[in-house]
Amino acid sequence: MKEMKLVYAAIIFLVSEAWSLDQAFSRTNQSTSEMKLNATSSSSPNYVFKYSSLKLGRDANLTCGDKTWTEMMFVIWKLRLKNKDCDIAFHIDGQNRNTCNDGKSLQNTSEAQSFLFIPNFSFSDVGIYKCESVFSGGAEAYSINVSITVPPKLSSWLDWKGNKMVAVCKAEGGIPAANISWSHTGNTSTVETRDSSDGFFTVESRLELPTDMQTENVSCAISHLSWEHEESLMIKIEKAGRAFSWVHLAIPISIAFFLGFLFFGQKKLVKLRRGQESVVSSSKSPQTDDVEEVEPYASYVQRVNSIYNSSLDMFT
């Protein structure tokens, strides 16, 4: 009996020791994983610097090397954004962390390649994205400067500078600034670039054209990071040039007509004034004649009266 009790006691002791060792091993693995994450977060590896420009309103993916999901032991992304700092981490033992809480997440492609997913890229997502990954046989670290790309609004028209035609192409409200070139070379062209306080750029290019230009149109080409191909705008020269010529011709004609109207009006006014003066003078002269005619009549009557009076005296 004593021997059996000793055997049972030995078995219980061995089982308890094995259970204690298993718990200690689990705690060791957990602490080792935490140490790896903390060491990765606090260390400063040699980064490979990259630049990436992402389109406004589009979903975007950023990769940290070309290793597959199965090859990685852990990967961590540390983000320094415009309004906050956050990090996203993955460890092979299942210890994951995501403090961004804005839709960003670690995903993998159909080929099992890991990438950082950014939904609906906006101005608040602009910043520095640092990633560190450890895989079987090595490690990689990248620092990616992420900026935003906004396509500009395009417009074109025909203008005049003195007696010269000027073709104008404009790319407004883009990030970064657009590039504008013309189909006609050798003519004088100017480019003006303006930036606003919120980071948008407006580019305006003006091309002087000869008045005896034979072609009916001229085109400008605009290139921008938002587009895979150049955008082209065409400006019609013939119709627009004729319209502007009629406008320029109508101005001197209108001025000449107005001056002629003033001249003939002034001349007519002088004639009217002279006519009125002659009418007034002619209306006054008959009154003088009447006075002259009346005066002899009065003297005649007076003489008649005197004769009549004298004849009366004789009879009396």
From TrEMBL:
<keyword id="KW-1133">Transmembrane helix</keyword>
<dbReference type="GO" id="GO:0150077">
    <property type="term" value="P:regulation of neuroinflammatory response"/>
</dbReference>
<keyword id="KW-0732">Signal</keyword>
<dbReference type="GO" id="GO:0009986">
    <property type="term" value="C:cell surface"/>
</dbReference>
<keyword id="KW-0325">Glycoprotein</keyword>
<comment type="similarity">
    <text>Belongs to the CD200R family.</text>
</comment>
<dbReference type="InterPro" id="IPR013162">
    <property type="entry name" value="CD80_C2-set"/>
</dbReference>
<dbReference type="InterPro" id="IPR040012">
    <property type="entry name" value="CD200R"/>
</dbReference>
<keyword id="KW-0472">Membrane</keyword>
<feature type="signal peptide">
    <location>
        <begin position="1"/>
        <end position="20"/>
    </location>
</feature>
<dbReference type="InterPro" id="IPR013783">
    <property type="entry name" value="Ig-like_fold"/>
</dbReference>
<feature type="domain" description="Ig-like">
    <location>
        <begin position="152"/>
        <end position="236"/>
    </location>
</feature>
<dbReference type="GO" id="GO:0016020">
    <property type="term" value="C:membrane"/>
</dbReference>
<keyword id="KW-0812">Transmembrane</keyword>
<dbReference type="InterPro" id="IPR036179">
    <property type="entry name" value="Ig-like_dom_sf"/>
</dbReference>
<dbReference type="Pfam" id="PF08205">
    <property type="entry name" value="C2-set_2"/>
</dbReference>
<keyword id="KW-0675">Receptor</keyword>
<protein>
    <submittedName>
        <fullName>Cell surface glycoprotein CD200 receptor 1-like</fullName>
    </submittedName>
</protein>
<feature type="transmembrane region" description="Helical">
    <location>
        <begin position="243"/>
        <end position="264"/>
    </location>
</feature>
<keyword id="KW-1015">Disulfide bond</keyword>
<dbReference type="InterPro" id="IPR003599">
    <property type="entry name" value="Ig_sub"/>
</dbReference>
<feature type="domain" description="Ig-like">
    <location>
        <begin position="45"/>
        <end position="147"/>
    </location>
</feature>
<dbReference type="GO" id="GO:0038023">
    <property type="term" value="F:signaling receptor activity"/>
</dbReference>
<dbReference type="InterPro" id="IPR007110">
    <property type="entry name" value="Ig-like_dom"/>
</dbReference>
